[in-house]
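Throughout our pipeline, every protein is held as a single compact record rather than as scattered files. The remainder of this section carries one protein's record, kept here as part of the documentation.

===
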Amino acid sequence: MGELIRNFKFLQEKGFKIAEYGFAESISEAIEIANKIGFPVTLKIPSQIHKTEVGGVLTNIHNVTDLKNLSKNMVSNLEKQSIPFDGLIVQKQINGVEVIVGLKQDAVFGRVILFGSGGVLTELIKDVSFRVCPITEKDAEEMINETKAKELLYGFRRKDVNISELKQFLVKLSHLSVKEIDINPLIVNEEGCWIVDSRIFK
């Protein structure tokens, strides 16, 4: 079933919201899931590897024909890279601001939480704020305000997102008992925060 599904289930049990998804063992199953969830959808492999680098994630798929063609191309490209087919995750496309959140063990400060601009350009932009865990909502607000992501979250050419839920998300994450977690992206919009990908080391 893959590490990503296990991560999703773990995070759901802890009370975090995951964008609706289903696991398919074949392209025909992927089509069934997409019809049930409703287009547009994203398609991704269930591994913890960096999916973008290997062509393991596709977004904004709007119909069955595109899903069928794109999924066949994805599987073919993975085979060329000697990455075995281990099923596909079909997930509801959530639009909003992409941010990165995570936990890690720092050699000096111990357990820390991070927040910043997310998506495929995370490592290039390096727009991240840190705090020692656990944090308060005031800490969470300060972290948000210290990043460039703030401009997008507070309504730059769009509606304001649900900042209150984002702060609560960060506080809850700071109490999570895992060795390391990387959630990128977390999609934040006016309705709340939705996890669409994660890497967890327990």
Observations:
- Residues 116 and 127 are 5 Å apart (CA to CA).
- The first strand starts at residue 21 and ends at 24.
- The chain has a mean pLDDT of 91.
